[in-house]
Write a structure and sequence with these properties.
Layout (H helix, E strand, L loop, with lengths): L1 E2 L8 E6 L11 E7 L4 E4 L5 E16 L2 E7 L9 E4 L5 E18 L7 E3 L7 E3 L10 E7 L9 E8 L4 E2 L10 E8 L5 E5 L2 E5 L4 E4 L7 E3 L4 E9 L33
Antiparallel strand pairs: 1-17, 2-3, 3-8, 4-8, 5-6, 5-7, 5-8, 7-9, 10-11, 11-12, 12-19, 13-18, 14-17, 14-19, 15-16, 15-18
Length: 268
């Protein structure tokens, strides 16, 4: 399912993926918070919901429980994020500083009470994937914030990917049983990308959101000249936590050592 959003995000909190209605099978809510300088937003503890706040741009002071931290981010491409993960019992206060701030928020059911944690940009390090394979047509930047290796208490997995202009990402095509949200930013924002969900193609524009269900492959490609940043969030399901992707047999060969992939010959 594709959910389009045109124009800038409005002031305040905008829910992009509700927990109810046609998107209830995602088992998580997702939205964006836009604050002007000096504005304070309070996110009170809730019944059984863990929450994640990921800074996309600007400056703010985060306060959670007895802790507080000033955070800042210049842009999506060249700066890694700050990400706050809290259990349901913790109140969160966000105060925007000079120039304002923008955050993405994710929430899902989790009755477990665990220690809140602020993930720093140094922990959300950028890594190149796809290098030296497939003629570099799927090289991209991946920032995994947390998964079961460093946040087993959470019911979520979250990270960022930057699709290099003209190259593929989430490739080779793969699928998994757990629901996943992709949220895109196209840079510059007038550009586009293309995404395949199952057998259905989608044109991706800035601020679009894609909902991925069990068994749906989800590769995509950035148009030449345009970087395709996206936030990805996976919801663990009971007795089947995310950890393994399934690549259909017809695509497995492309990453094998020595794979013979055609290239055009250039005249010397």
């Amino acid at each position: 399912m594709q959910m389009n959003h045109k124009g800038p995000f409005v002031h305040g909190y905008t829910e992009l993926v509700p927990r109810s209605g046609v998107t209830s099978d995602m088992m998580m809510s997702f939205g964006v918070l836009s604050l002007v300088e000096g504005e304070v937003h309070q996110d009170k503890s809730s019944m059984g919901e863990e929450r994640i706040w990921l800074l996309t741009k600007g400056k703010a002071t985060l306060t959670w429980g007895e802790y507080s931290q000033r955070v800042s981010r210049t842009d999506l491409l060249n700066a890694e994020p700050w990400v706050l993960s809290t259990p349901s019992s913790i109140d969160v206060t966000i105060e925007a500083e000079q120039g304002g701030a923008e955050f993405y928020r994710v929430a899902t059911d989790n009755p477990t009470q665990f220690a809140p944690r602020l993930f720093t940009p140094k922990e959300c390090v950028s890594e190149f994937r796809g290098a030296n394979m497939m003629n570099e047509t799927s090289t991209r930047v991946v920032r995994t914030v947390f998964d079961d290796t460093n946040r087993p208490e959470s019911n979520l997995v979250i990270g960022e990917v930057i699709g290099v202009p003209g190259k593929w990402s989430s490739y080779p095509p793969h699928h998994h049983v757990q629901p996943e949200i992709y949220h895109y930013r196209v840079i510059p924002d007038q550009g586009f990308g293309l995404c395949l969900i199952g057998d259905t193609p989608h044109v991706i524009r800035d601020k679009d959101t894609i909902l991925i269900h069990e068994g749906e492959v989800h590769p995509h490609v950035a148009a030449p000249g345009y970087a395709l940043w996206y936030l990805w969030v996976i919801r663990h399901i009971e007795n089947n936590r995310y950890g393994i992707q399934t690549v259909p047999p017809q695509y497995q060969w492309v990453t094998q050592e020595g794979a013979q992939i055609w290239e055009p010959k250039r005249n010397s």
